Amino acid sequence: MEGTSRTLPYTIRFVGLLGSHSLGRNSKFMATAVDLGREFIRRKIKLAYGGDSVGLQGAVASTVFTNGGLVRGFIPGYIATRRVYGPTYAYGVEHTVSSNYYKYFEMNHAVEAFIILPGGVDTMEGLFTLISWASKGLHNRPIGLLNIDGYFNNLIKFLDDAEDNGIGPMEQKQWEKNEVRTKPKVVFDPPPF
Questions:
Q1: Which terminal CB of the chain, N or C, has fewer other CB atoms within 10 Å?
Q2: In what order do the strands lie in the sheet with 71-76?
Q3: Which family does it belong to (predicted)?
Q4: Domain ranges of the chain
């Protein structure tokens, strides 16, 4: 069964993933990343991610790849050549791109939706790039935050406050289309309302 959503006029077959290059201190992050990878396999959804084999992204990619799923990694050349995160090994097909910006650009053209895992500055750069592009009409792909253990609560409040004050990233309530979920099994499902 492929991932579906009643909020979209099409079936989700290819999802882009952004998330931390480390596992973090919260053991729920790693466990949820592995569960998310299993959900990709169960729903026969292909994965595009930031390349490399480390952190939460690597945990999802490893789970998908070792269980026979299709994985495409988009890794900036400076990370691949300088081994910023240690030895570089991508699962599946790896595409080297010139910068983080082009990583998001290429992923955006390959996928039908995005899932954001907990992460730091690089993850937030990607999330805000995608939000900015959506606000300018450059893409209309859903962006799902996997809010493990309340990780994104303050970010969601910030975005809602900005919108409520008329200076937010979207003129319309974009987050009504984008989802905030806490469990991998429901991240692909339609909202409960």
A1: C
A2: 93-97, 71-76, 46-49, 14-18, 113-116, 143-146, 179-181
A3: Belongs to the LOG family.
A4: 14-165
Tell me if 188 sits within 8 A of 43, measured CB to CB. Answer: yes
What single letter denotes the amino acid at residue 115?
I
Kindly report the pTM of this predicted structure.
0.83
Q: Does domain 14-165 have CATH number 3.30.365.10?
A: no
Q: Which two tokens stand for residue 115?
A: 């899932």
Helix (H, G, I), strand (E, B) or coil at 165: coil
pLDDT one-digit tens code per residue, 42-96:
999 999 998 777 889 989 999 999 999 999 988 888 777 765 554 445 567 787 8
Q: Name the DSSP class of 191.
A: P
Residues in contact with 69: Cβ distance below 8 Å, sequence separation at least 6, in sequence order:
37, 40, 41, 44, 45, 46, 47
For the chain, list the strands marked E by DSSP: 14-18, 46-49, 71-76, 93-97, 113-116, 143-146, 179-181
Residue with token string 């209309």: 140
